[in-house]
Amino acid sequence: MNGWTIAATAALAGGLGTAVWGVATGPLKSRVVAQNLSTSLACPCLLLLSQGYTRPSYVDLALVLALLGPVGTLVFARLLVDDLNEDPPKAWGITFAVAGFGAVVVLVLCAVTGPGRAMVKLLVIGALLISGNLVASRALSGGFAESRHG
């Protein structure tokens, strides 16, 4: 076991365990926020495990998760729009914390990887992960004002 796998295990145990508990229990607004945060936590953990086990294929899994995780949250937000409008979730602190964690992981891995294709892929994953997380959280907390007018 090295530092990369220890960091991934700690993030999975703490953050993802809490997110899975939130998905399984609680009111609807907590469940959709926890679903969004679980994908946002799993992606950096896959990147850490990729570095720890020297498996580049885990980076591809992280890329797919960074693409599809926020899309799944947006589908839930669209399907549950009536229920979420009654009592919209407010989880901006957690959202920024998870986005910051993803950014730190991506930047550290970029520094370790060095310039090249792998670094570009890491930066794309980081951009998708952070922007997707913020857009999905915005959609869950009441949507965009422009989309309500027409």
| Model regions low in confidence, pLDDT < 50 over at least 5 residues | none
Distance from first to last alpha carbon: 54 Å
Q: Give me the Rg, rounded.
A: 16 Å
Q: How does the helix and strand content classify structurally?
A: mainly alpha
Task: Tell me what portion of residues adopts beta-strand conformation.
Answer: under 5%
Largest sheet: none
Mean pLDDT: 88
Number of domains: 1
**What characteristic shape results from the CA principal axes?**
elongated
Share in helix: over 70%
Describe what this molecule looks like in 3D.
This protein has 150 residues and is an all-alpha fold. The chain has one domain (3-148). Helices cover 85% and strands 0% of the residues. The chain has seven helices and no strands. The chain has helices spanning 3-24, 28-53, 57-79, 81-86, 92-113, 117-140, 145-148. Helix 2 packs antiparallel against helix 3 (57-79) and helix 5 (92-113) runs antiparallel to helix 6 (117-140). The longest helix has 26 residues, at 28-53. It is elongated, with a radius of gyration of 16 Å. The model has no long low-confidence stretch (mean pLDDT 88).
Short account of what is shown:
This protein is mainly α. The chain has helices spanning 3-24, 28-53, 57-79, 81-86, 92-113, 117-140, 145-148.
Question: What's the structural blueprint in terms of helices and strands?
Answer:
Layout: H1 3-24, H2 28-53, H3 57-79, H4 81-86, H5 92-113, H6 117-140, H7 145-148
Helix pairs in contact: 1-2, 2-3, 2-5, 2-6, 3-6, 5-6
